[in-house]
């Protein structure tokens, strides 16, 4: 394999996309492809539901509250704020590119986006509703009834349809077009020397063992604190809470590094406030390596090239409530 002066592989694999030939470098990270929408009506319904706060007890919290699409698909808080200002137990992961993950939530307790979508609605510390009450609200809104009938062939609203539609929308929230993707596709001018040096260091250090593929992560569960113990006040126990196995304690889903400059603070407990801090901690605890300030700067420069085109769309107009729609209870 031929290398350039920075040690980056130049080998390419011929690929065909959108009817024209383009080249992809032979790297452990692959470019993100644009979303393919096969059912636009379902996606539009899911978008409304994603932004609708009436799926919460308070009538104030929507999916977008914790996964703000204007803020990298997260809320930039150490832990999210739920019903009645309840402090969340864990940092909200980004919803962007989440369809590429092996499972959903830090502990992987939901197998896919559809299963995940129902969790926050019924969680008393998040949206604090029930699935039955959420369905009652939607069933009382004529605009939603008509939309569910158009998409699913029946005017009967069911939680399975609600989560299916939300998942369909979330599957479109991918972020292609990053500078790194352009470099992967053969544009030698897309990255500068500092960014390329950061990527080489990222690879040579072993970061790509976990952070690989199109999402640059999300495909495995790993123990937090392999070389040194991770000290935290968080009570989250990772996969052990799902599997009941002690060996899974502190095993968390490896987060995607796509758009990582937008999704601060970092780690499951939100303890690292900056990318520089996160790189330093991960180097020491996961790799047993103490990066210099210059090396940290190079890796951070590379990580910022992973910011892609953010989802862009017209905000949905939500159908008005009817006289029969249960009213919100913002203050218990």
TrEMBL record:
The keyword Signal applies. Binds 2 heme groups. Gene3D superfamilies: Cytochrome c-like domain. It comes from the Bacteria. SUPFAM superfamilies: Cytochrome c. Heme c 2 binds at residues 207, 210-211, 282. It is found in: Periplasm. Keywords: Electron transport, Heme, Iron, Metal-binding, Oxidoreductase, Periplasm, Peroxidase, Signal, Transport. GO terms for molecular function: cytochrome-c peroxidase activity; electron transfer activity; heme binding; metal ion binding. InterPro entries: Cyt_c-like_dom, Cyt_c-like_dom_sf, Cytochrome_c_Peroxidase/MauG, Di-haem_cyt_c_peroxidsae, MauG/Cytc_peroxidase. Residues 1-23 form the signal peptide. One of its GO terms (cellular component) is periplasmic space. Binds 2 heme groups per subunit. Its cofactor is heme. Heme c 1 binds at residues 63, 66-67, 83. Residues 41-149, 193-307 form the Cytochrome c domain. PANTHER family: CYTOCHROME C PEROXIDASE-RELATED. This is Cytochrome c peroxidase. It comes from Azoarcus indigens.
């Amino acid at each position: 394999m031929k290398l350039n002066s920075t040690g980056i592989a130049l080998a390419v694999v011929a690929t065909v996309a959108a009817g024209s030939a383009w080249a992809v470098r032979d790297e452990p990270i692959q470019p993100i492809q644009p979303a393919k929408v096969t059912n636009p009506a379902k996606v539009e319904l899911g978008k409304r539901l994603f932004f609708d706060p009436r799926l919460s007890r308070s009538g104030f919290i929507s999916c977008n509250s914790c996964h703000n699409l204007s803020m990298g698909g997260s809320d930039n808080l150490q832990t999210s704020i739920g019903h009645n200002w309840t402090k969340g137990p864990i940092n909200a992961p980004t919803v962007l590119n989440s369809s590429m993950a092996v499972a959903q939530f830090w502990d992987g307790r939901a197998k896919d986006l559809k299963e995940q979508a129902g969790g926050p609605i019924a969680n008393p510390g998040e949206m604090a509703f029930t699935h039955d009450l959420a369905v009652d609200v939607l069933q009382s809104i004529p605009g939603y009834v008509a939309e569910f009938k158009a998409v699913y062939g029946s005017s009967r609203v069911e939680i399975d349809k609600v989560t299916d539609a939300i998942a369909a929308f979330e599957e479109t929230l991918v972020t292609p077009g990053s500078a790194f993707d352009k470099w992967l596709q053969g544009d030698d001018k897309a990255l500068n020397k500092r960014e390329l040096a950061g990527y080489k260091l990222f690879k040579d250090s072993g970061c790509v063992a976990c952070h690989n593929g199109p999402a640059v992560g999300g495909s495995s569960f790993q123990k937090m604190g392999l070389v040194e113990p991770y000290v935290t006040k968080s009570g989250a126990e990772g996969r052990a809470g799902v599997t009941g196995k002690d060996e899974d304690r502190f095993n968390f889903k490896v987060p995607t590094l796509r758009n990582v400059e937008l999704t601060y603070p970092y780690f499951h407990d939100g303890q690292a406030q900056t990318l520089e801090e996160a790189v330093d901690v991960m180097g020491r605890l996961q790799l047993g390596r103490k990066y210099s300030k210059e090396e940290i700067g190079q890796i951070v420069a590379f990580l910022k090239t992973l910011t892609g085109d953010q989802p862009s769309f017209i905000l949905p107009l939500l159908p008005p409530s009817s006289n029969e729609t249960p009213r919100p209870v913002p203050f218990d």
